[in-house]
Amino acid sequence: MAERHEEFLELLHAVHRGLFEQIKDVLDKYGLPPASRAVMRQVHHNQGITVSEVSRRTGMVKSHVSKTVDSLVEQGFLEKRPDPSDQRLIRLYITEKAGEHFGQIQVEIRHRLSEVIAEFPEEKIEAITDGLRTLKAILEQGKGRQV
């Protein structure tokens, strides 16, 4: 039983790494670090978010988020604005350029991942999807547990 659990964990890690590499290949084509996708996703869905909030939501170290934000600002994808009610806070906003650029990147990533999934027989996709739903539900139930 322990061997199966170990293999399961190793397979999850390998699949995660493989999917990450597919995404990284697309981002490399545009000269963007992988962290930029997570940062851009957070800012896109939460206009006016702060670097600290992005850090908390992504699990990335604040200094890494800050460097990524600075790079994205330099490239014209993000805009920093002071908070009108608290000048110490800097809020992040997506630029028009980013909306167009990252939309194209998302399409390429989805296409790349769809090509990978297309290699699966349909009945295996259903079984894997069912297993992943179960795993997600188990993880969501245990979110508040202390180890």
What does this 3D model show about the protein?
Helix 1 (2-29) crosses helix 5 and helix 3 packs across helix 4 (62-74). The chain is mainly α and 147 residues long. It is built from 6 helices and 2 strands; from the N terminus they run ααααββαα. The protein has a two-stranded antiparallel sheet. It has helices at residues 2-29, 34-45, 51-58, 62-74, 96-117, 122-141, and strands at 78-82, 90-94. Strand 1 and strand 2 form a beta hairpin. The model has no long low-confidence stretch (mean pLDDT 90). It has one domain (2-141): Winged helix-like DNA-binding domain superfamily/Winged helix DNA-binding domain (Arc Repressor Mutant, subunit A), CATH 1.10.10.
Question: What percent strand?
Answer: 5-15%
CATH superfamily: Winged helix-like DNA-binding domain superfamily/Winged helix DNA-binding domain
What coarse outline follows from CA principal-axis ratios?
A: globular
Unreliable residue stretches: none
The name of the CATH architecture is Orthogonal Bundle
The major sheet is characterized as: 2 strands, antiparallel
Spatial strand sequence of the major β-sheet:
1-2
Q: What is the count of DSSP helices, taking H or I runs of 4+ residues?
A: 6
N- to C-terminal distance? 22 Å
Order of helices and strands: HHHHEEHH
pLDDT averaged residue by residue? 90
Structural class: mainly alpha
The share of residues in helices is: over 70%
For the secondary structure, the number of strands is 2
Tell me the name of the CATH class: Mainly Alpha
- Which fold name corresponds to the CATH topology? Arc Repressor Mutant, subunit A
Number of discrete domains? 1
